[in-house]
Design goal:
Elements lengths: L4 E3 L5 E4 L2 E3 L4 H10 L7 E2 H9 L7 H16 L1 H4 L2 E4 L2 E4 L7 H14 L4 H12 L13 H6 L1 H22 L4 H14 L4 H13 L3 H19 L5 H12 L23 H13 L6 E7 L5 H11 L8 E5 L11 H11 L11 H12 L4 E8 L2 H4 L8 E7 L4 H7 L2 E5 L4 H11 L2 H6 L1 H10 L4 H13 L5 H10 L3 H4 L9 H9 L4 H10 L6 E3 H8 L3 H13 L4 E4 L2 E3 L2 H14 L3 H23 L25 H24 L3 H17 L3 H15 L5 H17 L3 H18 L2 H17 L3 H15 L5 H18 L2 H18 L2 H17 L3 H17 L3 H17 L3 H12 L7 H12 L3
Helix pairs in contact: 1-2, 1-3, 2-3, 5-6, 6-8, 8-10, 9-10, 10-11, 10-12, 11-12, 15-16, 19-21, 19-22, 21-23, 26-28, 26-29, 27-28, 27-30, 30-31, 30-32, 31-32, 31-33, 32-33, 32-34, 33-34, 34-35, 34-36, 35-36, 36-37, 36-38, 37-38, 38-39, 38-40, 39-40, 40-41, 40-42, 41-42, 42-43, 43-44
């Protein structure tokens, strides 16, 4: 829309981007003003006629209006003249309302009226509106009807906006009273019978302790009203007068020193203390600084705030105020009225001068704190609204602590937030060491570290545990740890007769304030498998759609009963998890089993989809014990996306297998162990593989199902093999073999024998390994699918390569490759190609070996199969080294190493290869 500005709130003015338009004709000024009040509205010709000519109408009004419109368009020029449009029965001005100052003024004032909960923003809106006012409205517009219909309303709107802005100045307490008094004296002189202006003048004079001038102002308005209107002052003015005549003495100026004692044995929190110091250094001393320290109950918010305040109390020469708002805890939170009364009395206000009205008390507090360099520590606030009435206007440094995340205080009041979570390991150890005699702590560092872990590194829990250790100096810390581990719940071990030092009680102060929907969500999270919570899993657990789950979890995170780790992922502290599970068992005992079943239904189905997306065939149909899920499955368009999903959910998936074993859901447990086995194998998460395998087999053993027994034993046997427990692997896989024979399935028999061969291959017992592979290949021949035989042949060839029988390996591996290619199994095709490359290296056919490596690498890259890429690159480097090309080998191995995590065993293997080259 063309940029044009029409200014009516003062001398009439029209501005275009490159010039100011001079409209000399009073008729054209009246015409444009009529169309601009407001713009975009059709103004009939007869109304325009009256506005332009009044009672002295032209002989042909419509033609006269047309002529003036034509002249006005010509003045505005070709680009802007078209903004004055003729429509049926009249004309309109086609501009945005904000291009007319009167319309913009009205919009800003209305927006300020709606910002009732945001006084700072409301005042800024009013200031922006009042900056548009330049004098008498409709100046230079000679139109009696415009003056009559619009000028009084605009003037009234202006005065109301001024009064509202002055009220906000008083409430916020950051504008000098002298400036407000000067402004109000001008306004009362101009509008001498507007009592609302006099009321504000008296209020500011009284607040600024200028009683004599206030009495003089009252006499002035009383005389003016009597002589002008024959009326008495309003009830509000008379009440202010009575307050003046009461003549209360000036309050004594008090320098409060209210900080609680410094917490004993405070340790750690270096980063958080530094953040508070940084905000203090930024504070000028004249402005207003606000810092919000937030975290879960027991995180040490009060201890941190008080410790820091004690360290820096010399920076606040006019005193330190402390107020526990009891936002969480026994009893009701302190009300705004009560809190303001305490603060006012603490700085010397006589009790009889503390206003009963919270708004007046807040304004008085801001006035009395203005100019005083003070610290105000508002402890244990319930939320931002609990704090906002207590905030000073200037000169103070305010610290607020809360279990709420106080986002509103940051967004609307400019608070800097400092989040407290559990302590880092070093800080947790330091806190324990500070509370336990040093010689005991130094004698048992391992037990001390385990004690910190049992306490979830939560400061309150650590202090309770340290006190338990100090109470029994004759017992070793290891004995204390053993005792804590044997308790039904860590919360039993950390119980205390003092409610403020008992974790259950501290957690209950947050829980008891939750509305029913959040209380249900929180307690259900107690049976979530693992502490890392994803939105789809949470939606299944809570039986809601993911969007509703996100809203519930975000609200729990806002009161620190949950931690938002990153978008869509949340974490439940171990001790809070214990508390949530207890409350679920106590409050909703029937709900836990159903909720766990729902989330496990979803995870089994999602893991099945993810395994297929990785390129593995589905090992077994879902059992009848796995229910449907209303929560959508993850979108996994590629192998890379599936890998990322498994990485994100890994800890939860492993925990879910254990939860199934512990809670009577064996179908879910063994099947989930099977679904995640190939990912854990490929990514070398051997510890997780072993944990899931044990729990999965425990589940399968509860069922009279040879298929479940076979699959679960197969998973655990592979885990044992990869962790070097070869005899345990042999025993477990022979159990799988017995189940396969019971099933009469040659493919499963072959697979068990083949993996047994890999076990003994890793143990470098090649004779036993080759015997197993030979039996596996024979067992697979009657199988319905040739793929089972391909697997046996592939593993047979791999062992032959390691045993030095590379020529024999070529035959077995080529046959496996042909079967994979025939069935379109690209993942296995790439593996076979890499194995063939290694066999060709063993027969010194290096160009052919490199060609097969490259083909394997192309497939692995297309499938985003990192494990396959690493194997191909590693083998390529070995071939290049054998060809006398060490620089090329180095490049291949460095490329492979860059794909791995340092914890991956292959990373160490590649490190050794590179060191052998002098890297």
């Amino acid at each position: 829309m063309p940029e044009v500005s029409i200014r009516l709130l003062g001398p009439f003015e029209v501005r275009l981007p490159d010039r100011t338009v001079t409209i000399a004709s009073k008729r054209q000024r009246a015409l444009l003003a009529s169309l601009a009040l407001p713009p975009g509205r059709v103004v009939p010709v007869d109304v325009l006629t009256e506005r332009i000519w009044g009672a002295d109408l032209p002989s042909s009004p419509r033609e006269a209006v047309q002529n003036n419109v034509h002249r006005l368009r010509r003045l505005l020029g070709p680009e802007f003249g078209g903004l004055v449009r003729n429509v049926v029965d009249g004309y309109l001005l086609d501009v945005d309302p904000d291009q007319v100052d009167a319309s913009r003024f009205d919009r800003l004032v209305r927006a300020a009226e709606q910002a009732t909960d945001e006084p700072g923003r409301a005042r800024e809106l009013l200031r922006a509106a009042l900056e548009l006012w330049r004098g008498e409205p409709l100046g230079d517009v000679a139109s009696d009807s415009l003056e009559r219909d619009h000028a009084p309303a605009l003037t009234e709107l202006h005065l109301a906006a001024v009064e509202r802005r002055i009220d906000l100045d008083l409430a916020l307490g950051d504008r000098p009273p002298s400036a407000m008094i000067a402004e109000l004296r001008v306004l009362t002189a101009r509008f001498p019978v507007r009592e609302s202006l006099w009321e504000r003048l008296l209020t500011v004079l009284i607040t600024d302790r200028r009683q004599a001038e206030a009495l003089e102002a009252y006499e002035s308005v009383r005389n003016t009203l009597a002589h002008t209107l024959g009326a008495d002052p309003s009830a509000r003015l008379r009440r202010l007068h009575r307050q003046l005549l009461a003549g209360s003495p000036e309050p004594e100026r008090v320098t409060p020193r209210q900080l609680p004692p410094a917490p004993a044995g405070f340790a750690g929190r270096t980063a958080e203390l530094a953040a508070l110091d940084e905000h203090l250094e930024r504070w000028s001393g004249s402005g207003f600084a606000l810092v919000a320290v937030h975290g879960v109950g027991g995180a040490g918010k009060t201890a941190l705030a008080v410790h820091w305040a004690r360290l820096r109390q010399d920076r606040f020469s006019d005193g330190q105020l402390y107020l526990d708002l009891h936002g969480y805890g026994p009893g009701r939170p302190v009300t705004a009225e009560a809190a303001l009364g305490r603060l006012l009395r603490a700085i010397g206000t006589p009790p009889d001068r503390v206003p009963n009205d919270a708004g007046e008390a807040a304004a008085l507090l801001r006035t009395l704190l203005a100019g005083r360099r003070m610290l105000l520590l508002l402890d244990n606030a319930h939320d931002a609204e609990h704090v906002r009435p207590l905030l000073p206007g200037s000169h103070c440094f305010v610290i607020v602590t809360s279990r709420s995340d106080l986002r509103g205080l940051a967004a609307r009041d400019g608070a800097h937030r400092v989040a407290l979570r559990e302590l880092p390991d070093a800080d947790a150890m330091a806190l324990l060491t500070a509370a336990i005699p040093r010689h005991r702590a130094e004698a048992e560092p391992g037990a001390l570290a385990e004690l910190a872990l049992l306490c979830g590194r939560l400061p309150l829990a650590l202090r309770i545990a340290a006190e338990l250790g100090s109470q029994h100096p004759d017992r070793s810390l290891a004995e204390l740890v053993d005792d804590l581990r044997q308790r039904r719940s860590p919360l039993d071990a950390l119980a205390d007769s003092d409610p403020g030092a008992d974790l259950r009680t501290v957690f209950s102060w947050s829980y008891d304030l939750l509305p029913p929907d959040l209380a249900r969500a929180f307690t259900h999270l107690g049976c979530y498998p693992g502490s890392d919570i994803g939105l789809p899993g949470a939606a299944a657990l809570l039986d809601v759609v993911p969007a509703e789950a996100r809203a519930l979890l975000d609200r729990l995170a806002a009161v620190h009963l949950l931690e938002a780790r990153r978008p869509g992922r949340y974490r439940l502290h171990d001790l809070l998890r214990e508390y949530a599970a207890e409350r679920l068992a106590a409050d909703r005992p029937e709900a836990g089993g159903a909720a766990l079943r729902r989330v496990l239904d979803w995870y089994v189905r999602a893991a099945t989809e993810a395994r297929s997306a990785l390129g593995f065939s589905r090992p077994v149909p879902l059992s009848r014990g796995i229910g449907e899920s209303t929560v959508p499955m993850p979108a996994l368009p590629s192998s890379g996306a599936a890998t990322e999903w498994f990485e994100t959910e890994r800890s939860t998936l492993v925990a879910a297998v254990g939860a199934a074993a512990d809670n009577g859901l064996p179908d879910h447990g063994w099947q989930l162990a099977v679904e995640i086995r190939d990912f854990l194998d490929r990514s070398r998460y051997f510890a997780d593989w072993l944990a899931a395998g044990r729990s999965g087999l425990e589940c399968a053993e509860k069922l009279d199902d040879p298929l479940a027994g076979y699959q679960a034993a197969f998973v655990l046997g592979g885990a044992y093999s990869n962790t070097g427990a070869y005899h345990e692997a042999d025993a477990t896989l022979r159990e799988a073999l017995r189940h396969a024979e019971r099933l009469g399935d040659p493919a499963k028999t072959s697979r068990a024998l083949s993996v047994l061969g890999l076990v003994w291959q890793r143990a470098e017992d090649f004779d036993r390994a080759l015997a197993c592979h030979r039996q596996a290949e024979i067992a697979a021949r009657p199988a319905a699918s040739a793929v089972a035989r391909a697997h046996a042949l592939l593993n047979y060839g791999a062992t032959e390569i390691l045993a030095g029988y590379c020529a024999e390996a070529l035959g077995h591996t080529r046959e496996a490759l042909e079967i994979y290619q025939e069935h379109g199994l690209e993942l296995q095709e790439a593996c076979a190609l890499t194995n063939l490359a290694a066999a060709y290296e063993g027969t010194a056919e290096y160009p052919t070996a490199l060609d097969h490596c490259q083909k394997a690498l192309v497939i692995s890259l297309r499938l985003a199969d990192v494990s396959g890429q690493v194997e191909s690159l590693t083998t390529r480097g070995e071939i290049q080294l054998a060809m006398g090309r060490p620089d090329d080998a180095r490049a291949s191995w460095e490329e492979a190493r860059a794909l791995l995590r340092p914890a991956d065993p292959n990373y160490a293997r590649l490190d050794q290869l590179l060191k052998g080259l002098g890297c």
